[in-house]
Design a protein that fits this description.
This protein is α+β, with helices and mostly antiparallel strands and about 250 residues long. Helices cover about 40% and strands about 20% of the residues. A 4-stranded antiparallel sheet has the order 1-2-3-6, covered by helices on one side. It has a 4-stranded antiparallel sheet with strand order 5-4-7-8, with no helix packed on it.
């Protein structure tokens, strides 16, 4: 294996995908090659960020939905109520009052009794399902056997990584340390197909770092671009790309 070929093994080394002999040769090469050492450090940091890609925060309405469902589920009577029932009517009345007081106290602890609207429950369920699908798709791309990684630099020293799986026909973009976009602007991602740009999703209005599943299939795209666009995004770029990255071959 030539030295030029060793330079191409940084990504596989970071992902522990080298055979034992290749791993040993690359580790002997690494101390004498500052560019490879720097790339390994950058890829290792990126791999750490990618590991958090499948972590999804629960939807804001999930607690309310769970509490609403709890109120509709039949519960076993408390032990004190069963004993009171055997003791007679007076005991049953006392247990009922105790249970009622407990329910009122529980309701107060959760901020009072709220009226659960059907549409709100449906919205919360849809949000949870969408978040779960996104997490599954992210995980599928990052763990795909053919996933390939490419890193680059954005303006102001920000870091950028793209992971592409041709088998899954999807791509994931990871950014770190990007400047906050100006008021009324967002970062928009694009698939680059020759001289044409195809929309591939938006970063959050104040998002400067994160892992984003690019929208739509990779299809014939050979790379991606990033532009600043008006809030809500654009059908076509309205400014020159801040950066263009070629997809890994």
């Amino acid at each position: 294996m030539s030295t030029d070929e060793l330079h191409l093994l940084t990504g596989a080394y970071v992902l522990h995908a080298l055979a034992a002999d290749e791993h040993d040769r690359f580790e002997r090469h690494l101390p004498s090659c500052p560019p490879c050492a720097q790339e390994v450090r950058e890829l290792a940091a990126t791999a750490g960020r990618l590991g958090s890609a499948v972590s999804v925060a629960p939807p804001a309405g999930m607690k309310r939905e769970v509490m609403a469902r709890v109120s509709t589920e039949r519960q076993d009577p408390p032990l004190v109520a069963r004993r009171a029932q055997r003791a007679g009517n007076r005991g049953r009345l006392a247990a009922s009052r105790f249970a009622l007081a407990a329910c009122v106290a529980a309701a107060a602890a959760f901020g009072g009794v709220a009226v659960w609207q059907h549409q709100e429950a449906e919205d919360a369920r849809a949000a949870a399902q969408a978040a779960e699908r996104t997490a599954d798709d992210l995980s599928a791309v990052l763990s795909a056997p053919d996933a390939k990684v490419s890193t680059g630099k954005l303006p102001d020293g920000a870091g950028a990584t793209v992971v592409v799986s041709r088998e899954r026909d999807r791509a994931v973009f990871v950014a770190s340390g990007m400047p906050e976009p100006p008021a009324g602007k967002v970062y928009q991602l694009w698939f680059s197909e020759g001289d044409a740009m195809r929309p591939a999703g938006l970063m959050g209005s104040s998002q400067t770092s994160g892992t984003i599943l690019m929208e739509g299939p990779v299809d014939g795209a050979s790379g991606m671009g990033i532009t600043l666009e008006p809030a809500g995004g654009s059908a076509q770029p309205t400014s020159a790309p801040l950066a263009v990255m070629a997809f890994p071959a």
